[in-house]
DNA sequence: ATATTTAGTCCACAACGTAGACTAATTGGA
DNA sequence: TCCAATTAGTCTACGTTGTGGACTAAATAT
């Protein structure tokens, strides 16, 4: 429920307001900030002074547009102090990204590993090494890592950080959060959700969309008005188990005819006879050569995706649909059939069918979204960073 | 985006906090309020004084639990001052409800009319008369009607108050909001959404659930953490067009095999040969007599509902599913098959399948939800009511 | 040069919540 | 019966924060 508003909360709110505007608009003078926030110049000056002192914001040189009057001094987000860690465990790679407060990517580490054949503990230990060395390097560059988030391909209990079931990895009930102790506030979440947030903050994208993550399973992350929809328990977005045909092939979820059985990576690659990223590359090259079998596989998957998405559009009303994961490289060959299917199934009811676009970030989306989530949190509540300034305590745990 | 926090916003926030606690807990002493809100006794006393002066809250007699110390004076929501209007247009009736600030229903008016055979303007004119006489009576009883909301069976553009398409009524692009001018701030919304809110505030229910409204069309309202999920444009919840079978019977939406074609009122009543509420009553009595045709119709509908709900659960992760509308009287005969279908399709993936329960409110849900929404708004921002205290201006328009 | 315009700071002030002393009203026990 | 203990609620001095307008600073236009 709502919280008591005291003077400190008032200040924190206004601090976040100012920092949010600076973050959203790039750079602004104090006068412009006063205008957009509705606060007085006096108040804005004080708030900006605080933000400068904390190192979240810096003055740039004065900027002039040839207008009359005293030129204003613009301030912008300071990127060389605060940063966040974005991590991802996926089937055939581990990824680490460090993103600073201005949302620039400061460090990229990706390691190709076959995580399916390894034990969860070993995978996590390897990620831990990778992450710690990235943190070291970032700290060496003067950055302070205030927190991190980890993307995992499967539903996660947000409170405990336990991965219930990651079929791609073959994991069941792995307590990832407690195994991966980095001495930082950490947060574990579904890959599709974080990839959606990555698309929101680092992609070209709109602020309302459904991100579809095609892997062995198919997940989705729904962003409405710039924030993630998680459902009652945080397990929303399991697009892969939306029913395409009620008496279709059995699915590992216990159901039948789930989307995953038609458009999941395994179904797609059935025509190539190979699994994993090798198979995917083969499929892409075959489809480029207009191999009829491969093209048919794409059309079949695209049709099924269209059917499942028509249900989804009816239920959650997304503005745009962004295809990522394996659907990104195959986009040119599934785009048409998906749109067509959607159009024929929704066209009469809706004024407009949501446009289908391709993810720009590729496989980086989830790790970036993970780091971005921590950055977002700092920008949404910079005051939280003020208190632990004297001791070198990290940010308090990130709760969903 | 966020708003600047000034002293008045701080006060407004705390006022809402206190009023919200009183509303949620029934009645509380100032000392107890200080404890639950985290504010000091001093502040709570001042806030409560304001609320009493505005007539939103009253002191009850002192209450004692046999404990030591000075007894506290409890305060509770005052129900005899502020009230809201809830309206509903449906196929065969018009409904008006007046609900006071303590969420007691003060006035019920229902009129049986066949709205399908009448022109939209006439239907709205008739509702207008009904509503105005209800307002008169309420005002005569000393109540001040601060706003209203209208439930319509079909998707509504929340901004303009235009009903795009209400198949049950045969309406297309009717500007309901501007036609129904009551001299009150008014708000038009989808029946399923408002029924869900009715269930939230007036039902037994939980705070996280999916309300399924079975009529000729099938709609749904999703409530997460006590608030309604509307999607990007407010058209979320069109459960009736979730795909049950991709090559099933054609649907008026342009698609094929939509849930509506299997479990909508028309599909259900096909066995009785009669339409409307008469047909429904016939079906219920036939199913009670274990008429095999009627039982089969229910099983068929229940199975389809289970299939569509399994997609829905995967996508939006509701905690509970509440069946309303035509599904309420038929509940005993569809309950089993829905749960069974859901269980077999979700059981392996999820720890628990959301329980299926029946709506308690019956056909009243939407009108109550409509009024409740206005009441909720007052409780969430009582300060908005303070300003127009001297002039007799109504509440500012209710924006979604 | 001087008027005009815009940016940013300074200062007295108002709004609000806080802390703790103080008064009020009750129960338990000597 | 009366007093200590306990809890409710009010009162007052005070701290924090935003405001409004005067004031200073730095540019352009004439």
Automatic annotation (TrEMBL), chains A, B:
GO molecular function: DNA-binding transcription factor activity; kinase activity
Pfam families associated with the record: MarR_2, ROK
SUPFAM superfamilies the UniProt entry points to: Actin-like ATPase domain, Winged helix' DNA-binding domain
Residue ranges of domain HTH marR-type in the record: 17-60
Signal peptide start and end residues: none
Protein family according to the UniProt entry: Belongs to the ROK (NagC/XylR) family.
Entry-linked PANTHER family: BIFUNCTIONAL UDP-N-ACETYLGLUCOSAMINE 2-EPIMERASE_N-ACETYLMANNOSAMINE KINASE, ROK (REPRESSOR, ORF, KINASE) FAMILY
UniProt-recorded name of the protein: Sugar kinase
Species per Swiss-Prot/TrEMBL record: Acrocarpospora corrugata
């Amino acid at each position: 429920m709502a919280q008591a508003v005291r003077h400190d909360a008032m200040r924190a709110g206004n601090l976040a307001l100012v920092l949010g505007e600076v973050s959203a608009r790039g750079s602004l003078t104090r006068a412009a900030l006063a205008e957009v926030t509705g606060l007085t110049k006096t108040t804005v000056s004080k708030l900006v002074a605080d933000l400068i002192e904390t190192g979240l914001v810096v003055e740039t040189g004065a900027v002039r547009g040839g207008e009359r009057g005293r030129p204003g001094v613009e301030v912008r987000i300071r990127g060389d102090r605060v940063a966040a860690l974005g991590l991802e465990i996926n089937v055939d790679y581990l990824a680490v990204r460090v993103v600073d407060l201005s949302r620039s990517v400061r460090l990229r580490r990706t390691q190709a590993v076959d995580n399916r054949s390894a034990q969860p503990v070993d995978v996590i230990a390897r990620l831990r090494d990778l992450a710690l060395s990235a943190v070291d390097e970032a700290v060496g560059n003067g950055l302070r890592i205030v927190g991190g988030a980890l993307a995992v391909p499967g539903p996660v209990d947000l409170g405990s950080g336990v991965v219930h079931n990651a079929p791609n990895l073959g994991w069941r009930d792995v307590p990832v959060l407690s195994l991966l102790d980095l001495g930082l506030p950490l947060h574990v979440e579904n890959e599709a959700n974080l990839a959606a947030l990555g698309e929101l903050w680092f992609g070209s994208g709109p602020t309302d969309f459904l991100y579809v993550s095609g892997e062995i399973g198919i997940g989705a992350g729904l962003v409405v008005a710039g924030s993630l929809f998680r459902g009652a328990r945080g397990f929303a977005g399991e697009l892969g188990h939306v029913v395409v045909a009620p008496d279709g092939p059995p699915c590992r979820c216990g159901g039948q005819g789930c989307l995953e059985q038609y458009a999941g990576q395994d179904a797609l690659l059935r025509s190539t006879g190979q699994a994993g990223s090798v198979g995917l590359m083969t499929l892409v090259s075959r489809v480029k050569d207009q191999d009829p079998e491969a093209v048919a596989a794409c059309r079949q998957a695209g049709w099924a995706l269209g059917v499942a998405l028509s249900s989804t559009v009816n239920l959650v009303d997304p503005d745009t649909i962004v295809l990522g994961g394996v659907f990104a490289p195959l986009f040119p060959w599934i785009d048409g059939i998906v749109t067509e299917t959607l159009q024929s199934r929704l066209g009469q009811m809706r004024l407009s069918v949501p446009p289908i676009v391709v993810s720009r970030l590729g496989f980086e989306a989830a790790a970036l979204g993970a780091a971005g989530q921590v950055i977002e949190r700092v920008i949404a509540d910079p005051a939280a960073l003020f208190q632990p300034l004297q001791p070198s305590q990290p940010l308090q745990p990130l709760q969903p």
